[in-house]
Amino acid sequence: MSPQNIRIDVHHHVFLDAEKKAKKSLEIGFRTPEENLPWTPQISLAVMDKLGVQTTILSPPPVSSSGAEHPAEVRKQNIYSSQLCATYPGRFGFFAYLPFLDDIQGTLEEIAFSFDVLGADGVALISSYGAGNSAKYVADDLYDPIWEELDRRHAVVFLHGAQTPSSTPYPHPWLGVPISEVPNETYKAAAHLVVSGKKRHFHNVNIILTHLGGSTPFLAPRVAALSHYMGCPLTPDEIIEDFKSFYFETALSAHETTLTAMETFVPSDRLLFGTDFPAVSIKTVEWYTQNLENHFAERPLDLANTMHENALRLFPNLGKSKYVSNGGQQINDGP
Q1: Rounded CA gap, 196 and 218, in Å?
Q2: pLDDT confidence of 245, banded at 50, 70, 90?
Q3: Pairing between strand 156-160 and 136-137?
Q4: Which GO terms describe its molecular function (predicted)?
């Protein structure tokens, strides 16, 4: 494969517990492709090879909103992801899974272990933690020590909308929470980071918004004027500037309409390629990927930026995570 056709997938999940994943999908009105469960590395590698994906950055599924993330399970998944990177050199990187963020000390310890011992490529966060009125979005003041540490490390954060139902039922069985709610959760987290001043204050953190930011590009102008009117000290232009400082990945979002809108919002050096596999089928991934290639067909430099160059600049050590011994055994299935 020629260098210009190489792809780096920054949105690719690890499903360690097939039964748990299937149960969660049922609860939120979604159906994980049966052929992808139980997930194994070989399933991902086969799809990567078919799609021409050189390296995939693994992340946990975005279900960590209940407060039940046990530190031992988090540590187990991070070690496993690091082992995958060593077993398949150059094929995998990973975003570290973190405990429930209210556990500030436990989260800081996992960040240190993931970066310093395992060599993680970044950390995965969701838009909010907790349920109902007790839920907190990621820019909550409680989480400032976590952001301070990530800022000190110049870390990359992969920010995914939480699979959190709204106060009303999702409207139709074909419009479950991942379709109707997750994109708006991504927007709410991004907007909270901006209007609170956290995005500007912790400017050394590079934040990737999933699914082209969900509804972020379309609602950012609304936030710019109305949040300023409501008391945000940032000017409308400063608010727009901070929204433009995110990175945006293409999973389940690449279409002529959305990509055209993104071009008026951010330059091509802010776009990254993503698939959301194995949460969706390879047929779905291929449809979005074809849309992306068609859109940039006459602009090979923009296509190369999106497909791999931006990722290589953002992750200079991609695929070089440190090995954690698993007794010398090859990884073939889940942990």
Answers
A1: 19
A2: very high
A3: unpaired
A4: carboxy-lyase activity; hydrolase activity
E strands, 121-277, where? 122-126, 128-129, 136-137, 156-160, 206-209, 247-249, 271-272
- Of 202, 126, 115, 123, the closest CA to residue 163 belongs to 126
What is the secondary structure of 77-131 as a DSSP string?
HHHHHHHHHHHSTTTEEEEEP---TT-HHHHHHHHHIIIIIS--SEEEEESEESS
Encode pLDDT of 110-138 as tens digits.
999 999 999 999 999 999 998 888 899 99
Please indicate whether residue 27 or residue 86 has the higher confidence score (pLDDT): 86
Q: Which of 47, 70, 45, 46 is nearest to 60 (CA)?
A: 70
Q: What is the distance between the alpha carbons of residues 253 and 288, in angstroms, rounded to a whole number?
A: 7
* pTM of the complete model: 0.93
Q: Does the pLDDT value for residue 328 go beyond 50?
A: no
Cα-based angle 34, 258, 7 (whole degrees, multiple of 5): 60
Confidence (pLDDT) at 132? 82
> Which residue, among 268, 142, 250, has the nearest Cα to 196 in the 3D structure?
142
Residue type, 255: H
Other beta carbons within 10 angstroms of residue 206's beta carbon come to 17
Q: What tens digit of pLDDT does each residue of 191-241 get?
A: 999 999 999 999 999 999 999 999 999 999 999 999 999 999 999 999 999
Edge to edge, what strands does the sheet with 122-126 contain? 7-13, 53-59, 92-96, 122-126, 156-160, 206-209, 247-249, 271-272
> What single DSSP character describes residue 305?
I
- First and final C-alpha spacing in the chain: 32
